[in-house]
Every structure is written in C-alpha cells, then in structure tokens.
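Quick one, tokens below:
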C-alpha cells in the first residue's frame, strides 16, 4: 500500500519518527499543546478514545478539520508513530494527555505536540498488527484518523472458538441461535433523548435474550458481540455461519426522521427485490450504512446471495418469513408497543442463506414514550422473554425438536464466548 502523503511530507514525517524512536524516553508526557479555544481556522484534536474487542483495539483520533497522516497504512510492530504534520494544531479542552490501557493489544497512547504538528505514539503488545486509515466527517461525527490493532493470535483464537461451538452443537444435538446486537463501538446507531444510544439498548436486550434461551433445554444462544465494539455487517452473519447456527436474530431500535412521529415494533426478513416501501428502504439504507461508519469499504461486501443456489435461497427465505412472523406474534403480547407488521428489505446483515434470519426493530428510540421503555430493564427483560418464546414457537412450527436426541449428552453448555 502507498503512504498517504507527498514525498516532502514523508521525509519530514520519517525524520520525526526516527527522532522519536531515538529519544522516546526523554519525550515529556505533558508535551501537550495548550488546550482551549483555537485561533480561527486552526485545526484541533477534539477527541481521543479506544474501543476494545476480542480481536484487539481500535484507537480513534477526532479532528476539527481533515488532516493528512504520515505512517504505514498497515504492518506489525511493538510501537507505531502516526504523525500529523499540521503546524499550529492544538488539543481542545478535555482531550487527555495520555491514554493508558491494559488490554491485549495496546498498552499506551500518547500525543506529542510541537511546532510541526502532532505525533501519536502508540505502544503495542509485541507481535500485534495494525491498520491505519481515515474516516470522513459524517452527520454528527468529525473527521477521524483510526488505528485498528489486532492482538497476536486473535484471529486463530476466534476461529478455534467458532469451531468448538460448531462441534459442541453437533455433539450435543442442540439448536444454536446466534443473537446479533446491532451497532457498537464507533457506530452508535440511532439516538434518543438523554441521550440513549441504540448500541447500548440492543446489547442489553441481546444479553437478556441469550440468558433466557440458554435456560431452554436443547437450545444454546451465542452473541456476535458481548461488548461495545464494532463488527462489520457481513462479518456478523459469517460468525454465525462458522458456528453452524440454526437461527440468526439481529436486534435493533427504530428511529423516524421526525422526532416522536414513529412508533411500534416490526420484524424484517430479507428482500431480494427491494423494500416493502420507501420507508423500509430508508431504514435498510440507514442500517447498512453502519459499515461506512465503522470504516468498511463498500467493495468489501461479498455478493453472497447472488452466488448461492436458487432453491436453497428460496427455502431459507420462506423459513425467514416464518421466523419473522412468529417473533412478531409474540412481541405483540406487550400492548404498550403496537405491531407494525412483517416487512422485507435488503438488510446486508440478513444475507446468509445458511439459516433463517430476521431483524427485529424493537421500538422507536426517538419516540419520547417508547425510549423510556427501551432503557427500562423490566421492558428489556420482557422483550427478551417474548422473543425467546417466539424462538421456541418457531422451532415447533418448523417441526424441529429442541430436546437432545442423545440422552447421554446432557444439557447444552452455557456460552462463555466473549464475556
């Protein structure tokens, strides 16, 4: 890959990196430009934060205006210096002088300001690999420089875990339900007053649903994420495929363009011919944009549905419709949230044909009344119970037994996944 700068900037950046490497122990931690109001037109570092996942750590730097970084796009190292050669750059009020971490990929992040700009010194766990890229400002998100760090052996460990779950499912003859908590990390999803973030509500409901299903004999539930981190949309269903899932349920909260106008619950299954109506298409476009928020190129998506056999695809779509209908039937038991019906749209997260899939829009997070329900633990528990009852009803409708056929295999093991 090429460096994202011109030769003169590259020479200056590399000289700065070499100078830092030689005198790192002498670099003061408090080499922080004066915080506060910036001169008109000056660039500011407005935020600095990290997200930790089972695979590693994402480090994000927010800027008030677009900047150019000097660093390798990717590689493997025990430390990384990302230089932003923008003279006059400063830190906004509240930006920390250092981030100390104790995770499995990054141990420290330190910004060092000087007359030439700012350099970010990132200390990595030896053997870690990194990828550096930028994300353009979008809606309420600023311009960002992002560093994704993968901890040593993370990918192999995850693949081993997926294989073990698949083998355990086969051995115990249980039914595996993969529950996907929508959004996460940099991708907050929709927002309600307070603010209440969709990514937190979906994770709370997903956890409760998993706990409820893991108490059902013959069923095992696993989460795609059990923490606040980003997962690309296609990776979500591929995780389920690797574990040989029987069902895939993605949990979300709806949001209308006009605050308070939308209300109710609805459940979607995949459409190959477009959405049920324009509103459904807008919702699908909004949810599919999660990859752009997280920094995944549109070209990264495999056209999975288009290359699989038509018969298998149609059979799974029929099963997905049955799943969606059954889930909504049981969600409708809570009359505090009206039923908006079963709908179809081209949600990217539903594009596997290895198992029936449904996307649940629990309620409208920007509706003043429904957001109070969504952030309420009792409502979250009730929603999880209704969905769990719907899952059991679906298996019954489909003629799928939940009791293990081999009585010697015992009850399904609880998932210890990424918790």
């Amino acid at each position: 890959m090429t460096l994202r700068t011109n030769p003169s900037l590259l020479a200056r950046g590399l000289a700065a990196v070499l100078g830092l490497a030689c005198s790192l122990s002498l670099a003061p931690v408090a080499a922080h430009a004066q915080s506060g109001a910036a001169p008109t037109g000056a660039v500011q570092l407005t935020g600095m934060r990290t997200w930790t996942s089972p695979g590693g750590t994402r480090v994000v730097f927010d800027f008030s205006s677009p900047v150019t970084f000097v660093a390798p796009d990717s590689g493997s190292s025990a430390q990384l210096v990302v230089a932003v050669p923008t003279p006059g750059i400063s830190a906004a009020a509240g930006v920390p002088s250092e981030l100390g971490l104790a995770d499995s990929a990054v141990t420290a992040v330190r910004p060092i300001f000087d007359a030439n700009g700012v350099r970010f010194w990132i200390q990595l766990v030896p053997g870690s690999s990194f990828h550096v890229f930028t994300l353009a400002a979008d809606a309420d998100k600023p311009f960002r420089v992002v560093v994704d760090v993968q901890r040593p052996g993370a990918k192999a460990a995850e693949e081993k875990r997926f294989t073990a779950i698949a083998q355990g499912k086969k051995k115990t003859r249980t039914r595996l339900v993969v529950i996907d908590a929508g959004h996460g990390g940099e991708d907050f999803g929709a927002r309600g007053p307070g603010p209440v973030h969709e990514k937190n509500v979906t994770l709370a409901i997903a956890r409760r649903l998993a706990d409820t299903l893991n108490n059902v004999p013959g069923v095992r539930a696993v989460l795609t994420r059990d923490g606040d981190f980003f997962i690309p949309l296609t990776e979500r269903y591929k995780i389920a495929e690797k574990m040989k899932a029987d069902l895939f349920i993605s949990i979300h909260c709806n949001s209308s363009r006009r605050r308070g106008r939308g209300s109710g619950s609805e459940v979607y299954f995949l459409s190959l011919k477009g959405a049920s109506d324009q509103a459904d298409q807008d919702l699908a476009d909004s949810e599919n944009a999660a990859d752009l928020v997280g920094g995944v190129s549109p070209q990264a998506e495999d056209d999975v549905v288009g290359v699989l056999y038509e018969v298998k695809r149609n059979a799974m779509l029929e099963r997905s419709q049955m799943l969606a209908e059954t889930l909504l039937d049981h969600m409708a038991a809570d009359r505090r949230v009206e039923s908006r019906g079963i709908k179809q749209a081209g949600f990217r997260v539903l594009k596997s044909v290895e198992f029936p899939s449904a996307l649940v829009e629990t309620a409208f997070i920007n509706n003043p009344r429904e957001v109070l329900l969504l952030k309420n633990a009792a409502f979250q528990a009730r929603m999880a119970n209704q969905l769990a009852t719907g899952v059991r009803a679906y298996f019954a409708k489909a003629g799928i037994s939940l009791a293990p056929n081999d009585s010697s295999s015992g009850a399904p093991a609880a998932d210890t996944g990424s918790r």
